[in-house]
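User: I'm new to structure prediction. If I give you an amino acid sequence, what do you actually give back? Let's try with this one:
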Amino acid sequence: MQGVTRGQTMRTKNIAATLALLLGISLPSLAEAANAYATGNVNMRTGPGTQYGRVGTIPAGATLTIRGCLNGYSWCEVTFAGRRGWASSNYLQATYQNRRRPIIHVGPIIGLPIIVHRPRPPHWGGHRPRPPHWGHRPRPPHWGHRPRPPRPQPR
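Assistant: Good question. You get back a string of structure tokens that encode the predicted 3D arrangement of the chain. For your 155 residues, that looks like this:
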């Protein structure tokens, strides 16, 4: 490099490193989570759908954190009161241009991450299906047990 001093080179490297650090810090926070509001009492579930178990309820008007949504923004993974679960986006709104708007409309605009949900088999997580006869089996015969003889009838 002609006419460039060592001090200018070091300054350029320092500026580039600082910019890279700032960019690295700010980018993940843009795609990580967004604050949202519940428009009604919303069930938090263990997965994206009503067939999944209920973890709790988010009260109407409560603030929650959206961690990401399914493609199409129909269900979102949320955090509320220290619990993590899934909520229907029909009952969630986010602030965009100083107004609360439905997640399904503003999710792509505010950059909510898309989550690919791969359902696990139902027996994962300790809940194994039980055979249909579980708890309804006939008792085994008691070996050596004889029924009482009938009582004599009065004459």
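You can read the tokens as a compact description of the fold. Here is one thing that stands out. The first helix runs from residue 6 to 32.
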